[in-house]
Task: inverse folding
C-alpha cells in the first residue's frame, strides 16, 4: 500500500504470527506503509509456501503475502523458540496472530500474558468464528454469514466466488484498521489495546443492505442489493455484439438518462426502476441496443461518456491495462529479481 504521504509507519515494529491470507495481506499492507514486519514461521515454513502455482519452487500466493517482510523460523513448541519470540516482542510495537485461544494459552500468548510482559504492545488477533474455536477458511465464512446465499448462479444455486471476500474484506482490512487505531490509542492515552477481529463478524458486516432490509421488513426481496440485477433495467449485465458483456450501474438519474440518450433510447429514461413486464421489456430493448456494437467498439465509445457503464474485462485484460497505464509504477510493480508484486495503493 503505497501512499502519497510517504511511509507513515516507519519505526513501527510488527511481529506477525499469522499464516495464509487474512494476516498475510494485513501485515503486507503494514509493511508497505513503512512498518518493519518480522514474520515468524515454523521450521520448514508455513503451509502457504507450497500452494500452487509455484514460481522457482515457491508459491506465487506466498510471494504476494510475504513481500516486504523479514522471516524468522522459530519452533514455538520449544523453550528456545519461545524465548526467541519473547526477545522479538520486547522490541515490538504490534503483535498480530491468528492463534485460537487454547493454542495461545499453551504458548503463553493469551492477551493477558502478553500484556503483563509488554504493556505497550498493541495486540490484534485474527479469529475465525469469534465465539467458537472451530477452524474455518474463506468458503466457511461465506457459508455461515449468508454471503454465499446472495451469490447464486442462473439456476439459483449458491456459487463460491473466485476471490476471497471474507479473508480480505472481512479480515485483512479490519485487522489493519485495528492495528492503526491501536497505535493511535496508545499514542493518545499511553495504554495498549488487545483486539480480536473475527472473519465471521467481518463477513456479516458485508451484508449491509440485505441485512438492513431483513431487519426492517422481515424479508430479503432485493437479494441484498441496493438495486437488483435482473429486476431494474438500470442495473445489470448486457451483451455486446461479439458475446461479451457491459456492466450497467446507472443508479443516479443523470447517469441513466445519459446512457439511454447515448444508445438512442431516450424513452426508457422514465423506466429506470421499472419492474415486472415493463421492466422486462425495457431490459430486452437495452440488450438489443448493446448488441449493435462489439466489446471493442463499446470500450472506445464509453471513454467519452460520463455514465456508469463499464465493459466487463477478463482478468488478463484488466492486468495488462493497468500495466500499460502505470508502466510498472502502480498496483503491479516489478520487485526484486524482476518479479511483479501487487501493491494496493492509497493515492
Result:
Amino acid at each position: 500500500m503505497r501512499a502519497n504521504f510517504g511511509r507513515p509507519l516507519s519505526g513501527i515494529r510488527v511481529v506477525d504470527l499469522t499464516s495464509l491470507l487474512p494476516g498475510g495481506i494485513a501485515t503486507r499492507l503494514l509493511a508497505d506503509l513503512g512498518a518493519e514486519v518480522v514474520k515468524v514461521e515454523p521450521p520448514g515454513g508455513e503451509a502457504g509456501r507450497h500452494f500452487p502455482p509455484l514460481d522457482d519452487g515457491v508459491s506465487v500466493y506466498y510471494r504476494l503475502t510475504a513481500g516486504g517482510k523479514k522471516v524468522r523460523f522459530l519452533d514455538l513448541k520449544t523453550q528456545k523458540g519461545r524465548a526467541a519470540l519473547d526477545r522479538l516482542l520486547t522490541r515490538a510495537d504490534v503483535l498480530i496472530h491468528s492463534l485460537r485461544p487454547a493454542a495461545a494459552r499453551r504458548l503463553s500468548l493469551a492477551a493477558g500474558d502478553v500484556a503483563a510482559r509488554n504493556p505497550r504492545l498493541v495486540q490484534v488477533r485474527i479469529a475465525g468464528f469469534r465465539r467458537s474455536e472451530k477452524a474455518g477458511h474463506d468458503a466457511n465464512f461465506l457459508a455461515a454469514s449468508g454471503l454465499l446465499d446472495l451469490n447464486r448462479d442462473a439456476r439459483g444455486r449458491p456459487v463460491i466466488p473466485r476471490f476471497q471476500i471474507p479473508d480480505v474484506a472481512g479480515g485483512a482490512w479490519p485487522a489493519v484498521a485495528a492495528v492503526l487505531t491501536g497505535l493511535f490509542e496508545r499514542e493518545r492515552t499511553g495504554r495498549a489495546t488487545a483486539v480480536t477481529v473475527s472473519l465471521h463478524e467481518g463477513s456479516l458486516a458485508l451484508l449491509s443492505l440485505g441485512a438492513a432490509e431483513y431487519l426492517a421488513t422481515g424479508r430479503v426481496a432485493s437479494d441484498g442489493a441496493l438495486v437488483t440485477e435482473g429486476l431494474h433495467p438500470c442495473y445489470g449485465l448486457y451483451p455486446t455484439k461479439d458475446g461479451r458483456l457491459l456492466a450497467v450501474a446507472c443508479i443516479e438519474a443523470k447517469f441513466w438518462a445519459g446512457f439511454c440518450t447515448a444508445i438512442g433510447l431516450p424513452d426508457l429514461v422514465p423506466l429506470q426502476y421499472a419492474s415486472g413486464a415493463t421492466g422486462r421489456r425495457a431490459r430486452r430493448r437495452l440488450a438489443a441496443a448493446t448488441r449493435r456494437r462489439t466489446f471493442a467498439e463499446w470500450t472506445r465509445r464509453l471513454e467519452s461518456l460520463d455514465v456508469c457503464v463499464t465493459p466487463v474485462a477478463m482478468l488478463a485484460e484488466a492486468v495488462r491495462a493497468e500495466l500499460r497505464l502505470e508502466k510498472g509504477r502502480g498496483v503491479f510493480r516489478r520487485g526484486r529479481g524482476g518479479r511483479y508484486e501487487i501493491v494496493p495503493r492509497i493515492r
Notes: The chain has a mean pLDDT of 88. The chain has three domains: 2-205, 235-311, 315-346.
